[in-house]
Amino acid sequence: MIELTEKNLRIDKNTYLRTAKVLDFIIKFLTVNIRLHEENNIIEKSDIFLFNHFSRFETFVPQYLFANKAKIFCRTIAAADFFDEGVFGNYLANIGAVPHNYSDIINFLAKEINRGIKIIVFPEGAMIKDKSVMDKFGRFFVYSREKRSKRRPHTGAAVIALRVESCRFLYHLALKKNDKDRIELYSRCFPENEKSGDTPAHMRSTQIVPATITFYPLRISENFLKFMAEHIGNKDQRLIEEMAIEGNLITKNTDMDIHLSAPINVRKKFTFIDKAILKGLYLLKIGPCFDASQNSSLITKFFIASYGARIRLLAKRLTDKCMKIIYSHVTINLPHIASQVVFYLILEKKLFHIEKKKFITMLFCVIKEIQKENNLILHPHLLDPEQYASLLQGENEPLNQFLLMAQEEGILSITEDTLSFSQKLLEKFEFDTIRVKNTPKVICNEVKPIKQLGKIVARVINNITKYEKNRLPEYFFDDDLSTYYRDKERFSGSDYEDINQRETKIHSGEPFFLKSNRSRGKKTGILLIHGFPASPKEMKPLGEFLHDHGYTVYGTRLKGYGTSPHDLDQTPWEKSIESIEQGYKVLSLWCKDVVVVGFSVGAVIALDLASQSRNNTRGVVSISASVEVEGMDNLALIFSAQMEKLVKLIPGVKSKFIEWDTESPQVNYRSVPLPKLVDLKNYIEKVKKRLKAVSIPLLIVQASHDPIIKRQSAEFIFETVSSEKKNIFWYESDKHNVVNENCVAVYNNVLSFIKKLK
User: Fold this and answer.
1) Which of 98, 151, 675, 731 has the most CB atoms less than 10 A away?
2) Boundary (domain end) residue, out of 301, 327, 353
3) If you write DSSP's letter for every residue of 535-600 in order, what string do you get?
4) pTM of the full structure
5) What's the pLDDT tens digit per position in 373-410?
6) Residue 17 shares a structural domain with residue 149
7) Which residues constitute the domain of residue 196?
8) In DSSP terms, which residues pair with 258 in a beta bridge?
């Protein structure tokens, strides 16, 4: 046992930083994705940090992060048994650990805080394996394995914060009165020399930060550490369980989100009663230990007892507030939502079987609803439509992992169309085994304190039919908008200025959804597809015209367009085509039938869609379809493609763009990547071969003297398609873009065609 003194408990900065470097290597080797979320330099400005506790791994991560971020040193409180062995005990002391039974721990930590050292505490006091932290009355309790019962979280961190603030209050009072005796009395809680350039410690309020750690995903699969626990040692089942979970946390590419909430100002927790008690202690010359001797007067004992009672009460309140914040700032992920839905279905609806499609729709609707809540913290895969959109196709990896895990635990069975939940979900398991016997329950428990999530889940499940009918179209459109803004933000940085600053596009490239509740708008929806290299704005005048006549209209955005030429450069052509499905989904949910209207390259895409078997597609309008384009021959494009390859071989030269001459510079890119012209040419050739499959009613619109599209383009389409009902409308104009302006004759012909469809 080492001798515990303030001197040998001093942090050795070299040992501390070397340990941080070792941990840095270990963490990279373990493939844990640690993400620290803080605002306004919380770490530098705060004093005490409270973390939740689920595994052994997280106990050293905060210190490592703080050291690497800003060479900030931290104290932690450790069990006294760790200090029994001299060498290891000295090492722990060198990296900031303090034994929990250190006789002067409060004053020692107070002085450390005033020196700028941070204190890290896990108030739960042990790993909370079941993540069950609330009783039926909503009070915060944690399980004590030793007592095999629930107990309150430890209030020690709050007590330290309140004692620190008490000392600062008294020291400040002494300085204000220039009372040298009392200055000396209270100075033991402060550094010997406060830096004149900084705000003195006694002038700063003590800041305590609730911090939340969320691991994702939880797995129970085999791993190296579990293997070692099973084959080496004493076959301790508790250890095997821990390695089954924690081994996966640190070796299987796990996200570890650490969210630092806004600091709580401890000074503001003192009421006039507390300040009056402290002033009484000041007058009685009570030292910073706030202890009464046997010879103390009754009034001294009264003030000390009153102070102790108030500290205990305030510490309990402060701890409860911190725990509430910690438990409500979990980073919500898809398994959280899935587990909440499952347990609501079986507990509240008594439903143990559900159609898989219905279950997935519930998840999707919950995701869209929680996105509206500003105070909820969501995992990135719940914010990016490109990540969660696969839900509805049954191809979402987070969901599939969750279902597979539940299946392996024997609490879920899956057929092709149905999910069946086992009664095992409702069984009670031992504290140590629940993580491997009923993981969905553990996941559900983690977000149970987040009341908003529970209310949203209940609302969605109880009104799912209405959500399917009325909300889904809006959700899909919102995702389309979100994708546009994410793409725009991504390609707006300094790395893309070389091309972006040459652009003349002034109109927003966002998609649009003009919903109509009229009978005509419920029956027929119009899908508008813009041209190359434009955006939905190109089609909006036509869209507004059709909407004014009672139709529901969706102006889709081809991915890569309407943002930056760099976005177009980095977006595969197939992704651009796939993005049209978002508009199709919206219209198919809101309307009975869909009519596809495309302009230029958008007309080629419209014809391609018309060649596919879609029962709800009633007609197609091809406006200035770029099937035959002036100057777009294979030789030129092959040369361009080869040029692109050569350019990439030149050091420091990025992807080659060419200047694009356009009639509508306000909606079109002025710079176009060469490879996209090759992609475009190849796509047109493929569509030309598929035109014969077009059999639905068709209207072809083309300007009589289009400077870009050959006259043969319209004639070729007309002669090749299999449609019985087809017509060509020749618009007298020498312009290519006949949709971006109010071309009344074109608009009326399109309207007349749509009205005649049955």
Assistant:
1) 98
2) 327
3) -GGGGHHHHHHHHHTT-EEEEE--TT-SS-HHHHHHS-HHHHHHTHHHHHHHHHHH-SEEEEEEET
4) 0.87
5) 999 999 999 999 988 988 988 788 899 999 999 998 99
6) yes
7) 13-217+254-327
8) 36, 213
